[in-house]
Specification:
The protein has about 140 residues and is mainly beta. The protein contains 1 helix and 8 strands; from the N terminus they run E-E-E-E-E-H-E-E-E.
Length: about 140
């Protein structure tokens, strides 16, 4: 197989990929793709389910990033937005493979293990259309 992408720390930026405003932080990331097929079965379907081709329930992307807590002013701005659940334009960039759009950040957990850096997990819930970009070879 060719063209694989190795995992890297995700960089979260405010703004758009073409015009980023600030780097807010880096961390490990996971993405939940939300949207189930729309079932359209009825009595004529018999026992088998049928789904609408190309259709799905409400689509969403939930991007969860675990950051190392720090006192950088840009990161603190993100924390304030997450505490207030204020929507904004964000980019989650994995070295050119990215998602961008309007998201609502929220703090989902904070971890303070003995002798380790404090971790804070923020979930960015999509609020509208999300664009996926891929690096050019």
């Amino acid at each position: 197989m060719s063209g694989e992408i190795n995992g890297v720390l995700c960089t979260v930026k405010s703004g758009t990929n073409a015009s980023p405003v600030a780097i807010l932080g880096q961390g490990t990331m996971s993405i939940e793709h939300v949207g189930d097929p729309i079932l359209i079965d009825n009595k004529s379907s018999g026992e088998w389910q049928q789904a609408l081709d190309g259709g799905s329930t409400t689509k969403a992307k939930n991007i969860t990033v675990e950051f190392d807590y720090n006192d950088d002013p840009e990161f603190q701005t993100l924390i304030a937005a997450a505490e207030a659940k204020t929507s904004g334009d964000y980019v989650a960039d994995m070295s050119g493979y990215y998602y961008e759009g309007t998201f609502i950040p929220s703090i989902t957990s904070e971890t303070a293990n003995k002798n380790e850096i404090v971790k804070i997990t923020i979930t960015f819930t999509s609020n509208g259309v999300i664009t996926r970009g891929v690096p050019t070879p």
